[in-house]
Amino acid sequence: MRPLLFKNFTATSCIGKGVAATLESLLAQRSGLRNCEFETVDIETHIGEVAGVDDARLPDHLYKFECRNNRLAELALHEDGFFEAVQQAAERWGRRRVGVFLGTSTAGILQTELAYRERDPVSGALPPSFEYGSTHNSFSVADYLRRRCRLEGPAVAVSCACASSAKVFGSARRMIEAGLIDAALVGGVDSLCLTTLYGFHSLQLTSPTPCRPFDAARDGISIGEAAAFALLERVPAGLDGGAVLLLGIGESSDAYHMSAPHPEGLGARRAMEAALAAAALEPGDIDYINLHGTGTPSNDRSESQAVTSVFGPTTPCSSTKGATGHTLGAAGALEAVISALAVKNGLMPGGVHTNKVDPTLTAHYIRENRRAPVARVLSNSFGFGGTNCSLILGRTG
Amino acid sequence: MTLSAYVSGLGVLGPGLSNWPEAAAVLSGQQAYRPAAAVLPMPTILAAAERRRIGRVVKLALAIALEATSQAGEDPAELASVFSSSGGDGHNCHELCLALSLAGREISPTRFANSVHNAAAGYWSIGTGAMAESNVLCAFDASFTAGLLEALTQVAVDQVPVLLVAYDSEYPQPLHAKRPIPDTFGVAMVLTPQRRAPSLARVDATLSDLECDRFADPDLEALRCAFPAARSLPLLRLLAARTGGTAILEYLDVSRMEVRIEPCA
C-alpha cells in the first residue's frame, strides 16, 4: 500500500486527556484502572473510566446525540488542537473530500439500557425522550462527528467488536487511494456500559483485579473506555523526518469461533503477515509490537504463539491494556496513537500490572519502559467473531 | 471519481421475495409484487450447535451470501467480504437490555457473544472457512450505499473480488416503536474487478447530488423505504431489466450515489 501521513492525532482514556498526559502516564508506567464504581454496576472488577465524560456539553443543535459515547467523543475532539486540524483539512480539501471512519462496538447503548429501566409500566413503551438513531445505533458516533466537524464526505461506522477502530484505517486507506477523498477523520470511541461489563462477566472474562496481560496468573480483562482520533492524508513531497506514517494494514478472519481466538493464532498470524506485506517490510524491520494483550488466558497464549511464529522470540512487545484497560471498539485507534507516541518519543512502553511473565509464552514481553529509537511499530487488534487487524506505524524510509 | 466493478452474483431475500430470480421477475414487471412475511432458511453451512445459537439476522445474511456466491461460482472461503447492517440482531439486543433492566442482571454469555455487530460476518467465516479480510459497517439508513461504496473501493484499489452483504432485521417492542423495521430484508452481491462468465453487468458508480430514484408502485416504494438494505432496489431493478441505464441511490443527507449499469450480453 501507499503509506499515509498520520498527520494529527489525539487520545483520551483513563491514563490521560490528550497525548501529553497520555505520554506522561506511559513514561511513569501509571495505570488508570480503578475499582468499578460505574453507574449501578455490581461486579467485582476494575475499569478504566475517563473522568468528566458526563460534564462534556454537545452543541445545542446536536442535542439528539446526547449520550455518554458522544460526550466522550466531544471531550476528546478538543484535545491537541484536533478539531482545528480537521477544520483546516476541510478548508484545504473541501468538506466533501474529507471522510469520517469511526470504530465502535457498543456506541451509545447505555442510553437504551437506561431507557429500558424507564419503560412505561402499562404499555412497556420506552420514554418519549429516548432517541435510537443518534445514540444507540452504531453509526451515531460517526454521524455525530461528521455533523460536529461539518464534514460532507463518505461517513461510516465500522463495528467489528474489538478490532473496529483498527479496521477503520483500512476503509480510509482504500477511499484515499481510490481518489474519493483527500483526508480522513479516523478513530474509535467506546464508552462504559452495562452490556459489556455484565457481558464479559457472564463469559467469565473480567478479572477481579487490574488486568495483568501476559502474566502467569492473568485471569481476564479490565474494561476501559476511550476516544482516539487521527487525521490521515496522502504523504506530501518534502516531508520532515519527524512525521509518523501509517505504513501497513493487514486484516484477516479466524474462521474458528465467535468468542474464542484460534488456539494457534492462525488468523492473528495472517493479519500480521498481511500488514508486513502491505508495508513491504520484513519481520526484522519491526522494533516494537503493541499487543492486543487483553489479559485473558486464551488471547495472550494464542497471540504469543502468533507473534513468535512471525517475529521469533526477540522482538520486544507489550500490552498497554494494563494501563488503559481494554477499550474494546476504541482499542485499535487508542493503541495506534500510543504506537505513534512510541515512534515520536523513542519509547517502548513496558506493560504495567504484569508481575511475572508467563514462562510458557514465548514472545518477548517487556515490563519496564525502554528508551531507544523506534522506527516501526506493529499494533494488533482482535475481536469477537474472529476478526483481526494489524497496523504498522513508523517513520518514512 | 468513478468506481467500477462487475456484478457477478446476486442474492436477495425479503418480504415476498425469496431469492434473486423471484426479485428480478417482480422488479422487471413480469410478476406483481405480493408482500408476505420473509421466509428465512436455516443455513446448512453451520454445525448444529451454531445453528441453535443464531438469530434471524444471521440466517438472513448467510442465505443471501450463499445465493450470491453460488451464482458467481466463487469459493466463499477465498472471498473478502463487506457486511453492512443498520442494526444487527434486534431480538438479541432486546433480550440483553431487558435482562439488564431486571434485578440480578443475569445475561446469557451466548447472547452477549452474538450481540456484536459482526456476528453474521463471524458465522459466515466459521461456516465457510473464510479467512480473508471482512469488514462490518453501519451507516444507519445509508448502510446499503455505504457498504456498496466500501466494496467498490476495495475492488478498485485492491483488485480483488468482494462479497457485499447488506441486511436488516426488525427489533421487537419496545425498541420497534423507535426503529420500526417491519421484517427482514437483505441483498448480497459478488463484485469482481474483471468480467467473468456469470457476470450480469458492469457497474460504474459516482457520488451525486441528484434526487434518489423511487418506485411508482406503492408496495415496492414502501419496501424501499422500510429497510435500509432495500435502498438497493433501484439498482436491482436496473439489473433485472437487463437493458442498462442509470439509478440514483439514497446515501447520506448530503449526497446520493449514481450507478450506471451496462449489462453483460
Please describe what this structure looks like.
Chain A is an alpha/beta fold and 397 residues long. Chain A is 32% helix and 21% strand. Chain A is built from twelve helices and 17 strands. Chain A has helices at residues 19-28, 68-77, 82-93, 109-117, 132-136, 140-148, 164-177, 194-202, 266-279, 297-311, 321-324, 331-345, and strands at residues 4-13, 16-17, 34-35, 46-48, 98-103, 155-158, 183-190, 223-224, 226-234, 245-253, 288-290, 316-318, 347-348, 364-365, 370-371, 376-383, 387-394. In chain A, the strands form three sheets. In chain A, strands 1, 2, 5, 6, 7, 9, 10, 11, 12, 14, 16 and 17 form a twelve-stranded mixed β-sheet that branches. A three-stranded mixed β-sheet of chain A has the order 3-4-8, with no helix packed on it. In chain A, strands 13-15 form a two-stranded antiparallel sheet. In chain A, helix 7 (164-177) packs across helix 12 and helix 9 packs across helix 10. The longest helix of chain A has 15 residues, at 297-311. Chain A starts with a strand and ends with a strand. Chain B has an eight-stranded mixed β-sheet with strand order 3-2-4-5-1-6-8-7. The mean pLDDT of chain B is 97. Chain B has one domain (8-198): Peroxisomal Thiolase, Chain A, domain 1. In chain B, 37% of the residues lie in helices and 22% in strands.
